[in-house]
């Protein structure tokens, strides 16, 4: 399997996966934050209705844009489905259910998932 991903540098796969998964979870929250901000603007409310500890709106906005670009432009349809079902769904899904739902064999599923994680990491400049 590592021969198929040889175009990626030799790095700790577990560390890459951990970082990407953490960023995908943040992306989910930041996407909601962006929708909330838009809703406030549409209602004519400037600022925030909740206490705000950090002033990082621009950074968060850029993270959402760049994550969406990575998801939409670097992954094929099946890789994107795997990432959405595994990490962006509101319900926690296990790998077995995902690869059965997608009609994939176990090995093919894990190869696709690994490639998707590495493509996201590469697209975001993590690796």
From TrEMBL:
<dbReference type="InterPro" id="IPR006524">
    <property type="entry name" value="ArpU-like"/>
</dbReference>
<protein>
    <submittedName>
        <fullName>ArpU family phage transcriptional regulator</fullName>
    </submittedName>
</protein>
């Amino acid at each position: 399997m590592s021969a198929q991903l040889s175009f990626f540098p030799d790095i700790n796969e577990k560390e890459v996966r951990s970082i990407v998964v953490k960023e995908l979870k943040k992306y989910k929250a930041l996407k909601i934050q962006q929708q909330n901000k838009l809703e406030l603007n549409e209602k004519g409310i400037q600022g925030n209705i909740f206490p705000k500890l950090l002033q990082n709106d621009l950074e968060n906005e850029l993270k959402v844009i760049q994550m969406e670009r990575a998801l939409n432009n670097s992954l094929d349809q099946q890789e994107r489905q795997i990432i959405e079902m595994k990490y962006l769904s509101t319900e926690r899904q296990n790998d077995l259910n995902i690869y059965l739902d997608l009609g994939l064999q176990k090995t093919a599923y894990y190869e696709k998932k690994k490639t998707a994680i590495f493509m996201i990491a590469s697209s975001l400049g993590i690796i």
